[in-house]
Amino acid sequence: MGKCERYAQKYGANAYFVFRVLVGLLFLQHGVQKLFGMFGGVGSNGGTVQLMSLMGLAGVIETVVGIALVLGLFTRLLAGVAAVEMLVAFFKAHFSVGNWVPLLNKGELALLYVAVFLVVTVYGNGKWSLEEKLFKKEFF
Predict the structure, then answer these.
(1) DSSP secondary structure string, 40-71?
(2) Is residue 7 part of a domain?
(3) Which of 48, 50, 65, 119 could form a disulfide with 82 if both were Cys (CB 3.0 to 4.6 A apart)?
(4) Which long-range contacts (CB under 8 A, 24 or more apart) does 55-58 make?
C-alpha cells in the first residue's frame, strides 16, 4: 500500500467530516441570504426573495440542506435534491444567458456544487452524524 492510500485510510473519515460540515455551512449561507437578507441579501437592494417563488424555494432548499449536512441528517437524499437544484439553477440562471462557458456565464459555482453534492450522495453522512446517533443507521 502506497503512502497516499495510508493517509486516506488514516485521515479520510475525518477529512470527509470536515468536508461535509464546510459544504453545509457554505450552502446554508446562500439560503439565509435569500430568505433572511443576511450576508448582503439578494439583488441590488440587499433584500430577501418572495417565499412563494422559485428563488424562495431555492432558499428553503439551501437552508434545509445546509443545516442537514452540518448535522449529518438524511445527507444522501438531501444532497440529491440539492444537486438537482443546482442543475436547475445553472440552466435557468446561467446557461440561459446565451453563453455555455461556466466561467463566462458565472455558473461555475452551481456546477461545482453539483459535483460536491454527487460526492455527498455517494458517501452519505460519514462519521459524527446525528442520524447515526438518533436512529443507529443511515436511512438513504
Answers:
(1) T-BTTTTB---TTSHHHHHHHHHHHHHHHHHH
(2) yes
(3) 65
(4) 58/31, 58/34, 58/85, 58/89
Please give the model's pTM, rounded to 2 decimal places: 0.92
List pLDDT tens digits, range 66-124.
999 999 999 999 999 999 999 999 999 998 888 889 999 999 999 999 999 999 999 99
**Residue range of the domain that includes 70:** 3-135
Of 130, 120, 140, the C-alpha closest to 26 is 120
- Alpha-carbon distance 102 to 4, whole Å? 32
Which residues make beta-bridge pairs with 42?
Answer: 47
| Residue 140 maps to a domain | no
